[in-house]
Amino acid sequence: MNLELFKLRELPFRLSPDPQFLYLSKAHARAKAYMESTVWFADGFVVITGEIGCGKTTLIETFLQELQNDVVVAQINQTQVSSLEFLQSVLVQFGYKPFKMKKAELLATLNDYLVEQYNAGRKLVLIIDEAQNLTQTVLEEVRLLSGIETPKEKVLRIILAGQPELNDKLDAPELEQLAQRVRLRFHLPALTSIEMRAYILHRLEVAGSQGREIFAGDTFELIFRYTGGVPRLTNTLCDTAMLAAANKNHDTVTRDDVTAAIDELQWQEYSSRTGTRLLRLRGDAAPGHSGESRARPDNGADAPLARILLAAGGRTVGERALYPGRLIIGRTSANDLQIESRFVSRHHCQIVTTAHNCVIEDLNSTNGIFMRSKRVRFHNLNDGDVVMIGQHELLYIDERAQHRAQGEAHSASPASGDHPVGGGN
């Protein structure tokens, strides 16, 4: 996107959870206050739930940024783990290398560390994001960790954040003891239409709009109709609409630009979907061969416009088909394509696919993305391009030309069941 055209300092609608762009609706402010209360009260869990893209991760990042130096935090984002792997992950966050420890040793080491830090006057917080993926066995380990205490109070404060299924898990009879320890439980809703407008204007102001009108007044109702006030969907649609305006060299996004963006993304109105998750930025994952996971669009289209192959050490370790929309690449399981590597940021980069092209964009990652040994911020992908992400390679394969050739061949072939003159017996 041409930032100079809109006179902005930075992109206003990135999907990465940047705390400076946080818009505190009443619900977001309340959820943040609940998280902050864990620092002062160590008598139970705080549970924050919300639909995909409602801002839970951004709230967590903001909460972490504002903590005092006497607070020690373990943040767990990879939650599809066994109970042993979970305990190891917690100790890794506290600076240990526990991979050869047996479970009894893990528990003893963790208990000793927590009590030692508590006695030194430090507050200890465990934050588990994507907690809906935790098994009942791991949730039971979480409950047992919450039981570590001194004669005065509990030692470990715990925040569980996740999608609404987390509430269903906590309400299961098998986890009644854990549910009884939940002190505060709050569901983060989508933004109202008024809040969504304020959210968009807030992000533009942070990016440097200085009060200038960048989105025309009649665009907000249309944006809300297609996003339902979900922040992540709002970011996606606004960013794509700004690209549409920039392609026409316009410095104001009009209703026509929003409509063009909706067509590019192939979205339906938010209220027309069954449930709040039928439209996802990540498609339904279906495992295939060689670690392949194919994203399928909701509109039923079968032929991808392109695909990417992920390789490490000369070996293909993953594949993704690309359809119109966004694909987010990063270290945690919350991404569409996860790369578990210390050289990859939480949300490292994104690929935006339209009917005509694919663009890869760095999301302010620590180690960046590289094309031919040169670090780039944006790159318009061409067939055969190889992008370096940490120690991994991403090979881009454009299939649009192949689809066009197949279509031309099909249209040129005789109709089904026809025979040349004089043919047959």
Globally, the shape reads: globular
Could you give the order of strands across the largest sheet? 9-8-18-17-14-15
Indicate the low-confidence ranges by residue numbers. Answer: 274-301, 415-425
The whole-angstrom Rg is 24 Å
Structural class: alpha/beta
Protein model, in words:
By secondary structure, the protein is of the alpha/beta class. 33% of the residues lie in helices and 22% in strands. It has 13 helices and 18 strands. The chain has helices spanning 3-6, 26-40, 56-65, 83-93, 103-119, 136-146, 165-170, 176-180, 193-206, 220-227, 231-247, 255-265, 400-412, and strands at residues 45-50, 71-76, 123-128, 156-162, 182-188, 284-287, 293-296, 306-312, 315-322, 325-330, 337-338, 349-353, 358-362, 369-371, 374-376, 378-380, 386-389, 392-398. The strands form 4 sheets. It has a 6-stranded antiparallel sheet with strand order 9-8-18-17-14-15. Strands 2-3-4-1-5 form a 5-stranded parallel sheet, sandwiched between helices. The protein has a 5-stranded mixed sheet with strand order 11-10-12-13-16, with no helix packed on it. Strand 6 and strand 7 form a beta hairpin. Helix 11 packs across helix 12 (255-265). The longest helix has 17 residues, at 103-119. The protein is globular and about 70 Å long. Mean pLDDT is 84; it is low at 274-301 and 415-425.
